[in-house]
Predict the structure of Cytochrome P450.
Amino acid sequence: MTAARRADRAVYLFSHPLLFALLGATRHRPVLRLGRTVLVHHPDAYREVLTRVPLDRTAERTTGGTAAALTGGGLLFDQQGDEHRSARGELARLLGPAGVAALRPEWQRILDRYLGGLEAPVDLVPAVRELAGATAAALTGSAADPVRLALAAERAAAATARAHLPALLPRPGGERRARAAALRLSRLLPDPRDAMLATAAVNTTLAALPRAAAWCARERLWDRARADAPGLAAELLRRTAASPVLPRAAAADATVLGHRIRRGDRLLLVARHAAEAQHDAPAHPYATRAPFGLGPHSCPGAALARAQLALLLTTLAPHRPRAVRTVPHPTSALPSYRSCLLRSTAGPSY
Ligand code: HEM
């Protein structure tokens, strides 16, 4: 295993040790039932569930159900049928090529301001936090300070994940804290229903971009970043699989790769394994798309996420930075760095 892969795997395992140890230990089973919970590891099983099995978007302990319970509903993840389709259509316009082109100058200004010449070590996390917050503010029409908005979205997601993921110790008051954090986020938004959009945009970006840049630095991939930043961005998003598990629930009986799924089963769709993030050269044709879901259940922000990372890699590449030090985040909802220090190796002072 390369040093880059080892370091990135450590962040992933550190974030939710119990859950991710279980997923690692069972990953050779394509589909595994544990009581009413079904672990879905294999890329074909993941694809079948997301494209063929009716999913209950409001069930307890799914992403949508949790969001609805915390905020009173009306969010994208818990909408169904026509309501969901029209909300997604609106979002596609904001997150499409024109939306990305409109946001790019702002992203570049933020990156230039933080990164400078990288002669001294620079922490990438605050830069990405402002980038993600500015994106969320633009998409939701919020006038809040981007860093404040991003921090509120991080806290809401972290409190929600802690209240709903398996843990070694009980967490009294978790629900209450999650509800309060969701409320604080909603108050920064003109339409509180956009809380899920802000949460999805901020937390995935903060998980993905610093980890991808650190991987690039540790593996010395800067020539590749210069030659093909979009291609490298897509590959690093596959290897880091920022949203590693999708908690969902089956809305009907189904059979997936010969395994029976029953209506009401809790499904843990392991995007990280569907993306074959554990391999440098994936064999499955859907591996690169898998971190973003698939078919009707795919991320509307995928192109924007790839464009953001490609811009970050392009901005860093001339400095050929090395990773000075990375520290995993102890409480983030998704496996992320709390700090990620990079320093130029291209300058005369190095
Ligand atoms: C590396 C970055 C990202 C990853 C890995 C990722 C992954 C995902 C996944 C797996 C879903 C679930 C799809 C479903 O089950 O319906 C999702 C949904 C979503 N994502 Fe992303 N995402 C990323 C970045 C973004 C960004 C940057 C934005 C917005 C700017 C965004 C906005 C959304 C929204 C709004 C949804 C909810 C869609 C719905 O319920 O229909 N994502 N994302």
Observations:
- The chain has a mean pLDDT of 90.
- The radius of gyration is 19 Å.
- The longest helix spans residues 195-218.
- The pocket of protoporphyrin IX containing FE is lined by residues 76-77, 88, 91, 95, 135, 139, 197, 200-201, 204-205, 208, 237, 242-243, 246, 271, 291-293, 297-301, 304-305 (CB under 6 Å).
